[in-house]
Description:
Low-confidence stretches: 267-272
Strand order of the largest sheet: 1-2
Oligomer: single chain
Distance between the termini: 28 Å
CATH topology of the largest domain: MetI-like fold
CATH class of the largest domain: Mainly Alpha
Amino acid sequence: MILGLSRSWSVSGYLIAAIITLPLIAIIAQALVPDEAVFSHLLETVLPTYIANTLLLMFWVCLGSLLIAIPAAWLVAKCNFPGRNIFQWALLLPLAMPAYVVAYVYTDLLDYAGPLQKLLRELFVWQSPQDYYFPEVRSLGGASLMLALVLFPYIYLLARTTFMEQSSSLQHASRVMGCGPWRSFWRLSLPMARPALAVGVALVAMETAADFATVSYFAVPTLTTAVYDTWLEYGSLSAAAKLSAIMLLVVFSMIGFERFARRKQQLFQKQTGVNQDERYLLKGGNAYLASGYCWLLLFFSFLLPFMILFHYAWGYFEQSWSSEFWEYSLNSLYISAIVSVIAVFIGVLLMFIRRISPRKSDLLPSRLSSTGYALPGTVLAIGILVPLTYLDFAVNDLYEYLGYRGPGLIFTGSVFVLIFAFCIRFSAIAIGSVESSYKRISPSLDMAAITMGLKPKALLCRVHLPLLRKGIFAGLLLVFIECMKELPAALLLRPVGFENLATYVYQFVSDEQLEHGALAAIVIVLVGLVPLIYLNRSLEQES
């Protein structure tokens, strides 16, 4: 689109991109500061274990999520069986469940003192752990399973959408050539879904690398916990920054490898939805197997943890329904609301500049601003504290130079630091949502508006914003729930005496007292259901 876009728009786009990429620059700069003692000690002792555990965790979670999600996505998209309409949206529900809550619930169920092992000992008259073998829940494998149960919907959603958009003519051709459902899936549907699966795996890997609470609760040392421990226990910000740089190298290398692997892959297909008559009709045992698999997946990933949370909340309602609960709930709500509005504003502004600017250089701000989501919360916390601490000291030094008393830590000692961190991390979600809506707006509308003499501001307010309302609303909801759930950044950056629902619940989980925080956890889950239901309805309308 060619429009007389003033330089002020471009400058504002680059300014936003510079602010969002500031933590990344700060981490690299801080990592270059010499800190031989602490980092050398880590390198010689535990760092290889941290790196190996991180890579193994990412591998097993991605593999487990793929194995769980792909069959469910293909069944829902390509087959008719009892309960299909329910599973189409219900299998997204685990995304609303914090992974560390699921980890605590299953630890409580499966641990030596839990009800399952108690039942086994009573049935088989076992007296001690030496009498039988039971997998260790608090282990790398246990953490991988917990994360896979929560994160598989990322792959499920993308795979289901891709399977539904695959050309029906190709499916008809496979039937004519004698391919049954299984051969059609293995030889046609799965290879064509590879780009979507790769994106889903990348999302799962980034979320796994960013997880702190689950691996910390399961005592699995990873780079995320190493950053946390190095910073708070060793007191070495430089060593923590070096570990953060290693984490970023792992994440970006994995994303780059995935894109390099499919750089020459091109898929062309007519994107027509799969209607009722084109799906495979499953009967008898196959129908029961498909329905049973989806029910089991939904039960173990969402229904069982939620029912146990509800049981805890009901039993400890009087203790949980307190002034602290209301205070922390309001803290979460107002911070999430502020961040959602700011993130969507950033997304609309950057995508508007990208759409109407004739300069290729104006494509860069939106791309740079999307890198914040790749920063794990612990890494982001370090990247933010470094520049904001310098800024706080500079402000106080200026006050003292002018003969006034300094205002204190106005940036790092207030909720500003949380809002700033959340905006950097989740602006990418808003940008993606707005970009998706922009793709549905015909460029001819812009040309007509320009012909009528509309300036950029009028074009945005009078033409684009009304047409972007669905994408804006979806972006608001998605950013809101991510802010409600975000724990590592909130845990490290919260001001003294400030708590939100995520940190409140985590404190009880750490103390093995989730019962007292179950009500707060349910609030996080219920709030998270709203954008998931809305997202699913939007996808159903588009398909």
